[in-house]
Write a structure and sequence with these properties.
This protein is an alpha/beta fold and about 325 residues long. The protein is built from twelve helices and 14 strands.
């Protein structure tokens, strides 16, 4: 689903940059069907990726599998010294993510984590607006995401997949989907000192909490609130969305697909900044291509993704222990003063 709906359209747009030489899927018939669509000979279709890795004509592998399978597949690709386009998270546990970082040091292939929110135009434009000082010093933010996961489970969506409805990894949909929001905030505001969170428990398998509410202190001094409602829908417009308050103005993004970033200023002025939604898939694959040519650095490395994953797990730990936890700081002692 992720390949056909997200990555393949971007690959098609970058048709003069990429050539597909092999495809692999556990259910081989699905891979065979896709190979026919792109006129790829059947001898280039596999249901065992380890056999595929033995080929000599692969520059990189683009992996889209259920989260519990990420670690083993990434591990074997890196050990084979093949470049990797990895989905988030790197692994379903912090231990797995740490092992992959250590392995990467031994096998310094190009690894890009396809965290599309870090590559989305709206997130990069918001970061630029802040860095340009348009709203002055950022004081605080509110970021709210209401996802009607239970309703989406019965439709032709990512939520309809069995492994997401009954996840075999900690955090459920918060690790899977909330991680995007975490990555976007860290991309805009930078490193995080600590997080403190609360959650409302539920019995549904897809997430241990029906809502997660967290306070975040960034190393820059920015403080804000992030809330993730796993089984809800906002019934009023405008949506709460993502609001960033500075001492000279405010940035407002109602939702990531709305196409407009609104800026209002204390002097009464305003700006509407247009953007093209969901360009992250194109931007990340272009960045990866340019990195292989040595023309630019990979924007989302495993080290960057590791911090995003750590923040998700520390939010979950904070809920469980009712304590604040550090993210990018080295100390274990947190002062809430």
């Amino acid at each position: 689903m992720a390949w056909k709906r997200l990555h393949w359209p971007a690959i098609q747009e970058l048709g003069d940059h990429y050539q597909i030489v092999a495809v692999c899927n556990k259910t081989k018939s699905d891979a065979v069907d896709f190979a026919r669509e792109i006129n790829l000979a059947q001898e280039n279709v596999y249901n065992d990726y380890k056999e595929m890795l033995k080929r000599g004509d692969i520059d990189a592998v683009d992996v889209m599998v259920p989260i519990p399978e990420n670690f083993d597949i990434y591990h074997n690709i890196v050990k084979a010294n093949i470049n990797l386009i990895a989905e988030k998270p790197l692994a379903s546990t912090m231990e797995g993510a740490e092992k992959l970082l250590k392995l990467h040091k031994k096998h310094p292939v190009n690894i890009m984590v396809a965290e599309n929110y870090r590559y989305n135009d709206e997130i990069n434009k918001i970061r630029d607006i802040i860095n340009q000082g348009k709203i002055g010093d950022v004081i605080y933010f509110i970021n709210h995401n209401a996802a009607d996961f239970e309703n989406q489970m019965s439709k032709n969506t990512f939520a309809a997949t069995e492994w997401r409805q009954h996840p075999k990894f900690k955090g459920g949909t918060f690790l899977d989907a909330g991680l995007h929001d975490i990555a976007a905030m860290r991309h805009i505001f930078g490193k995080v000192d600590y997080v403190y969170a609360m959650g409302q428990p539920q019995q549904e398998d897809f997430s241990p909490y029906i809502s997660v509410n967290s306070q975040i202190k960034f190393s820059s001094g920015v403080i804000g609130q992030y809330s993730y409602y796993t089984d809800g829908k906002e019934t009023q417009r405008p949506l709460i969305g993502f609001r960033i308050f500075g001492n000279k103005g405010e940035i407002y993004l109602e939702e990531r697909r709305c196409g407009t970033i609104n800026i209002t200023y204390r002097d009464g002025g305003s700006e509407q900044i247009p953007y093209r939604p969901e360009r992250g898939y194109f931007n990340e694959l272009l960045n990866f291509y340019n990195s292989l040519l040595g023309n630019e650095e990979i924007a989302v490395t495993p080290e960057i993704e590791y911090g995003d994953v750590k923040m998700v797990f520390n939010i979950l730990k904070s809920i469980k222990d009712n304590k604040a936890y550090p993210v990018d700081t080295k100390t274990n002692e947190i002062s809430l003063v």
